[in-house]
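Troubleshooting log. The previous structure file for this entry was overwritten by mistake, so regenerating from the original sequence record. Sequence copied from the archived sheet and checked twice against the printout by T.R.
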Amino acid sequence: MPPGHFQPPLTTSPVVTWAARAGIMWGVADQHEPEPGSNLPDKSRPADIVDAEVVDGDLVAAPTPAKPAQPADDAEFREFQEFQRFKQFREWQQAQGGDLAVPPPTGAQPAEQPKKPWWKTALGLLRYKFVRRLIYLLVLLLLLNYAYDYYFGSSSGGGNVTEGGGSALEDAIPVVATSPKQAVRSVYNGLRSDSPETACTLFSAEGQHQFAREHSAPNCTAAAQQVNSQITDPGAYANPKFGQDVIYGDPSAAEVLVLHCRVQVTGGPLLGTFKLSRQTDGSWEISAYSFQTSACPN
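Regenerated output below.
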């Protein structure tokens, strides 16, 4: 050091003293802090590089919640809607306190429906217009056939003459009559036929003679042809209407009368009163004929 140069005193001690004081104060102030460097990242591992992009302007809006995916086709969409409605129904039923219907098992077969009765199936055909028209046509044809047979009669076919009535056919003259009414009806039926003389087979010999005399004819055949020429409606003439008291006498007796005044005839002349006799085989034969009888007033 050159002479006359003043060297200031060293000031290292105060610096050290303050540093030491600072360290002491640091340790007193934060005794629970971790040691310096304990929270530093590990320098032995390289830091991760983050690729970030700076976005200018407004904030990005939050994404809207995704809508449920639509079914692939209409069928799936309808099933989805039915499921939603069923789910809502179950929730409503639970809220009402009702019992839930247990769905059938997935693999179970549906119960077989009972077959409809045949008459319901037949009535179901009436839904179709052409079926109804066929029925109307059939009914109309039946009515026309009945009306034609009633007013004009029929000149062909066969059948038996019945005691209950109905249009008799011209060749339905029985060989024997089983009742007085049947015998008289067969006479009317035979007279309107193309062979009116067949009616004479129902008379006895005396009955044929009286029938010819009452009609001013030489014999029964001529009398039958004469009556046939006066018939205007063969069908109606073959179906005379008998009153309840047309039979005069005991039906169980051997002889009875069929009174002409208790018979209604249309389509031809009214015949006289017939006297019938019971035969040994139970049949009835016309044994007498006259236009005048005490049981019928003139």
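Residues 128 and 134 are 10 Å apart (CA to CA). Archived copy saved in two places this time.
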